[in-house]
Write a structure and sequence with these properties.
The complex is a heterodimer of chains A (312) and B (254). Chain A contains seven helices and six strands. Chain B is mostly helical and 254 residues long. Chain B has one domain. Classes of the chains: A alpha+beta (312), B mainly alpha (254).
């Protein structure tokens, strides 16, 4: 049977109610799911493509935007099931919001704006050097993240569900406020081992920030602009990327390292707790990513662990 | 909340057939239950817990009869209450190792809130131990747990009397609000003493640049009852409708 000459038909049913939502006549066999989604939006404008999940089976996996109609196991009329993913928001928007918050919030505490600490401390400055250093580090960290979001990262998914932005912002903004409150407090106690401790911590922080950035650049170079291809990342000439030999997600490794550095620098328990929670979440993500690498690539380097060399 | 969560959250603690926990309504397709060894262990566990809470119930009645009043009965059952309620922590383990099909998170939440009330409030703030609110939640918990653990015991043995099922899904209507009231009143009574003693609180300045105000924390806990209690309560009501109306069909399979 040759479908190349024949135009296909597509019917779209609601995955839950099986109600016929749309019937598309004269669809090119080489049409992609993305194109079908665009056609569907014409008849149902409230369901823009990003919130459409189309699948072959009502309970099955979503079809990818790149999938071609002709290559799917369907008859002359393709039956696709539609599920509404809910309001979507772009990853870029989420990242910018969740990172701009901590940057701004921390500075509110650093400058001791009124109503946070007692009135006699309004707009005063800490007498501890480490407090100023901490502000620079924290701000640098989030400025770096904002710039990476705008210029470095290449996202495989365009959007995520809207409710995520509330969840994520609560987490980032909440912890930023909690940490900043103590570090910039008039009764802040500097680290026990003084300048030595701060210097060591700063070194750890800077190395890990450079490392994290190097990994982000290496990952970006793996994927050409506009594509969604996935390849195994390998170490490059940059020594910071050599961590790829031991770990699938060195960006997370470096990120945890940065926060450990910051915790040692400030000797502040809330920072340590934030690092712990972040570490837990990143470990979950790293394990997932590691698992999908293993599934997708037969020749995946066996020495690598998800996030901590040899251990985790 | 600790009272309600106990009935609402846990589906399991065993139960091969006739499992009418917080979830499955009619399952003609029997799920793979725990193995024979696990089942035996769970039966023993649930029997022991039922017995334990019966001891507490009897202890309350005897103390009431001996004293002639219902005030300050806490002291007569303090030890078994602490022992058996704390023992419920095992239920988290049961979920974690998979012999009970409930969510670890939900069960942890439920058991921890009970343990919190017993140790971090009632035990820690001696002045509230003579409050009547303590009796209120102890009675609510005692009746709830006797029914709940016997429910699981019978379910595991595939021989659940309708009376137990009915009791589990009906008495909560009164016991739940009763328990919640007792809990809230007890926490509220503890507040001034916590404030006075600076209990479990740490203030600045200190080496780790951290502070914790237990008084404020308790207030937050009390506020959290507002969103949580209605959700759990209406979930149980929903479950009740589903499970008690399905009994007609289930009786055929018994």
């Amino acid at each position: 049977l040759h479908f190349k000459e024949l135009l296909g038909k597509v019917e779209i049913l609601d995955a839950k109610t099986r109600e016929k939502l749309c019937f598309l006549d004269k669809v090119e066999p080489q049409a992609t799911i993305a194109e079908i989604k665009n056609l569907f939006t014409k008849t149902h404008p409230q369901w823009y493509p990003a919130r459409q999940s189309l699948r072959l089976d009502p309970k099955g996996k979503s079809l990818k935007d790149e999938d071609v109609l002709q290559k799917l196991p369907v008859g002359t009329t393709a039956t696709l099931y539609f599920r509404d993913l809910g309001a979507q928001i772009s990853w870029v928007t989420v990242f910018l919001t969740e990172y701009a918050g901590p940057l701004f919030i921390y500075l509110l505490f650093y400058f001791r704006v009124p109503f946070i600490y007692g009135h006699k401390y309004d707009f005063t400055s800490s007498r501890h050097t480490v407090v100023h250093l901490a502000c620079i580090c924290h701000s640098f960290h989030y400025i770096k993240r904002l710039l990476e979001t705008l210029f470095v990262h290449r996202f495989s998914h365009g959007t995520m569900p809207l409710r995520n932005i509330f969840k994520n912002c609560t987490y980032y903004w909440g912890f930023a406020a909690w940490m900043a409150y103590y570090i910039n407090h008039p009764l802040y106690t500097p680290p026990t081992y003084g300048a030595q401790q701060v210097k060591l911590a700063l070194a750890i922080f800077v190395i890990c920030q450079l490392g994290n950035f190097s990994i982000h650049m290496a990952l970006r170079d793996l994927r050409p602009a506009g594509s969604k291809t996935r390849k195994i990342p390998y170490p490059t000439k940059n020594p910071f990327t050599w961590l790829f030999l031991l770990v699938s997600c060195p960006n997370y490794t470096y990120e945890v390292g940065s926060w450990i550095g910051f915790a040692i620098m400030t000797q502040c328990l809330p920072v340590a707790l934030f690092s712990l929670v972040g570490f837990t979440q990143m470990t979950i993500w790293a394990k997932g990513k590691h698992r999908s690498y293993l599934k997708e690539f037969r020749d995946y380097p066996p020495l690598r662990m998800p996030i901590i060399p040899f251990l985790l | 909340m600790a009272a309600a969560a106990a009935t609402a959250a846990s589906k399991g603690n065993g139960g091969g057939g006739g499992r009418a926990g917080a979830g499955e309504a009619s399952s003609s397709r029997k799920k793979k239950g725990p193995g024979p060894l696990a089942t035996a262990y769970l039966v023993i566990y649930n029997v022991v817990m039922t017995a334990g809470w019966l001891v507490i119930a009897v202890g309350l009645v005897r103390a009431y009869l001996a004293k002639g009043s219902y005030h300050s009965l806490y002291y007569s059952i303090e030890k078994p209450l602490k022992f058996f309620q704390t023992g419920a922590l095992l239920e988290i383990l049961h979920c974690a190792i998979g012999i009970v099909p409930s969510s670890v998170v939900l069960t942890s939440f439920q058991v921890m809130s009970r343990v919190f009330l017993i140790w971090a409030v009632t035990h820690s703030v001696k002045e509230v131990q003579s409050e009547d609110s303590v009796l209120l939640f102890v009675i609510a918990w005692t009746i709830t747990e006797i029914i709940r653990y016997s429910f699981y015991t019978f379910s595991l043995l595939n021989h659940l009397p309708y009376l137990i099922k009915w009791a589990r899904y009906t008495l909560f209507i009164v016991l739940y609000p009763m328990g919640v009231s007792g809990e809230l009143l007890t926490i509220y009574a503890a507040l001034p003493f916590v404030r006075q003693a600076g209990l479990y609180s740490i203030s600045l300045p200190n080496k780790y640049n951290f502070s914790f105000d237990y008084y404020a924390f308790l207030i937050l806990i009390m506020i959290s009852y507002i969103p949580i209690f209605p959700q759990l309560y209406f979930h149980m009501i929903h479950q009740r409708r589903k499970i008690l109306s399905h009994t007609e069909e289930h009786k055929k399979f018994e």
